[in-house]
Sequence to fold (227 residues):
Amino acid sequence: MDFKMELLLLLVLMTSCAAVQDLSGQMFTFPKQTKSSYIRPTTSVRDLSAITVCHRTFTDLKRDHSLFSMSTPSNINAFLIFWDSANKEMEAHVKDTKAEYLGLDYKPNMWHSICTTWDSATGLTQMWFDGVPTIRKFTSTGSSISGSIIIVLGQEQDDHGGSFDINQSLVGMMSDVHIWNYVLSSCEIHKYMDKLNYTPGNVINWRAMEFQTFDKVVVEKEEMTCI
Ligand SMILES: *[C@@H]1O[C@H](CO)[C@@H](O)[C@H](O)[C@H]1NC(C)=O
Fold:
């Protein structure tokens, strides 16, 4: 094997392993209903005593669907953001306990920015939906989200890392996924909602994200207008 060949092989290996990507201005497109297409962002964090999860999504689904799914071996719905179409409510599940948020204007065919916070000290969970805060509801207190954390975008985990339900999959687009290990101030959340300069996630950072792609998910430019 000549030197050029070795260099080429090394480059190929590096691009497939070191999958840390700056996804600024990009989005994940989940183009069809499957139970096999998803993104798995990787993190080495194993303990979250507080959390903020932010994302922007775009869909026309009328049925139930998952927007964000985090599981640990002891809590399948360690942190789950889920649209319940029958009850027209956005749900935040924290350590398998659900908080329901009603009356949100979850319109199809437009981007929605959602941030959800939880603090184990108070046990309170709050969702920010397109810049508007919901009431703060009690979910779970006293202990952290801990153990091996698996995050899945595009599907809902009914098992640690699997058992997806095709009828809960996301068909649409997703962008700007960030996770922090603390509750963001309302000022920071407003900055995220308005796409101003905000502190990127320290658990998952859209601008330096390591992830695996399963089946059919496309990474593409978020621009939909002509500039
Ligand atoms: C998904 O929903 C369709 C339509 O309601 C239904 O026919 C099908 O059995 C469901 N599949 C699963 C796996 O639940």
Summary: The longest helix spans residues 3-17. Residues 10-18 have pLDDT under 50 and may be disordered. Residues 165-167 surround 2-acetamido-2-deoxy-beta-D-glucopyranose (CB under 6 Å). Residues 88 and 128 are 16 Å apart (CA to CA).
